[in-house]
Amino acid sequence: MDYIYTGLIIIFFLLTISTLIVGVSNDAVNFLNSALGSRAASFRIIMLIAAAGILVGAISSSGMMEVARKGLFHPDKFMFNEVMLIFFAVMVTNILLLDFFNTFGMPTSTTVSLVFGILGSAVSMSVIKIINSDAPFSSIGNYINSDKVLAIITGILLSVVLAFAIGAFVQWITRIIYTFRYERKMKYSGGIFGGLSLVAILYFLLIKGLKDSALVSPEQFQQIDSNTGWILLISFLVFTVILQ
Known about the structure:
mainly alpha
């Protein structure tokens, strides 16, 4: 039996490499298509900026996947081999799903596919255990953390709705400002618009992303959090001057 688990660990390692390849490829399509399609910069500059962003994101990651992994189901209700099968199914499904979407050029979310992959695998294993034990299906709540699942699904759906609504509003305002005679308007307000955009990115990706990051200590984050207003104001002025 030990050889089986050793083999599974080796397979997990190989699947992890495949997951990284298809996952990063999917994210590259999602995030780089706008920059490459609009030719905002040369291919080399875009890739350098993307690489720097990946590095900063990996360092300042707040462990969101740990929340999904530990919160969707109750591991203490499963045997070790059942947990191994759950995550094995998650990795295989994730690779096939992301590769399918990448092949046909359709955007998808690696986070959503991973979260729902874990949920689906855990539910399937729970159903198998319920059937084998002749327990009622209502006992599935003993295996699945329904409160956490509902919170995560609601957060995902709300984020999509809010992103669509806010994005549409910003696009509407932008088109009102820059639709006519944009060359003259861009000269005076382009730097301000770019400064606001970069400050928004700085706030959500760096300041909020550092909350549970190992990159800074709690005391350092407290200093950053208490001076967020000044940081954003100075950043806005600097970005506006650079982009003007």
